[in-house]
Input
Amino acid sequence: MAAQSAIFRLEGVTRRFGDVTALDGVTLDAGVNEYISLLGPSGSGKTTLLRVIAGFEAPDAGRVHFQGRDITALPAHERGIGFVFQNFALFPHLTVMKNVAFGLMHGKGAQVPQAEIDQRCRDMIEMVGLAGMEDRGVDQISGGQRQRVALARTLVMQPKLVLLDEPLGALDANLRARMRNELRAIRERLGVTFLHVTGSETEALAMGDRVVVLDRGRIIQIGTSEQVYDMPETPEVAHFMNRFNLFEGSLKGGVFEGPFGRVAAPRARPAKSDIYGVRYDRMRVLPADAAPQGPAIRAHFVANEYLGSSVMNFFETPDGRVIEMEHHLSLGAPDTYVPRQDYLLTWNPEQAIVFGREAH
Ligand SMILES: Nc1ncnc2c1ncn2[C@@H]1O[C@H](COP(=O)(O)OP(=O)(O)OP(=O)(O)O)[C@@H](O)[C@H]1O
Output
């Protein structure tokens, strides 16, 4: 992305805590009005990245730019960047209205006339779906409503960039799914850039225009949801996406040898280990005595799980490896399998994703 269209840009940002390198030379930019999901395992540096952008944490090396300015040395309260915390950090003794108005009354915007503060707060409270609750205490509303107050309180300051640290983490599954849609809708209406940290790959893929995958302080992939989902660049991303059966083995001369035998793998990606991946929804189940066209592995059926739009079937190989097969319900009713019975699991090797040390 061209620097001039970026709303923020990190250049080679490193942050250490003693022996721990929480961020290791991170370079990242976000466009105006973009929704970026930041995904990574626990301890990968997600929160530290947000804190460096917000100004709560100074980088040991590297620069932070926002709206074309170098803000590396600018204090947090002068940056004009919004932050929504996982635990909401509301004032428990204040009403919804007073929580939302707090920044405008006491922050940099203290000059804003009272009538305008009232209007902006009421508009924002309506935008997040809390009209009528202005005078309730925030201890008298639900978790999802508190999350909306936290969002309204940040958005009412009209930031151009909002950092969200696991904003849906404290909500139950139903509410989380609903709030995902609302977050996207609210952001589209306001035209603000969101950088949303999540530990959930489902959430990252569902929300982000782009998904940034962080691992041990480094960005290991940036792409659209489709790119990250379909073409993970490393075995770590594939593992973290939780969408692939991954087999260890060895890649030699363009042939992968794994627990399923030998399969041609002409288009392997360079990696530090030899790994063969088949997406859950690319697995096919055949009777145990079938003669499969392609590679296959024998496994018995264990159980299945309905996920709403698909069914996940779990199989186990004789050596205890769990293989997952996802059936999208849009393709028709799922087949039923008999527990403990053997089946052959097969796939089209063209659709496999192969990583190998020799592929450099
Ligand atoms: N103030 C601190 N002092 C010492 N170490 C820290 C501090 N803050 C973060 N770290 C360390 O830096 C690394 C990155 O932490 P960070 O909180 O950014 O990860 P995260 O990806 O947000 O994790 P989680 O998903 O568990 O919140 C971790 O190893 C963490 O222990």
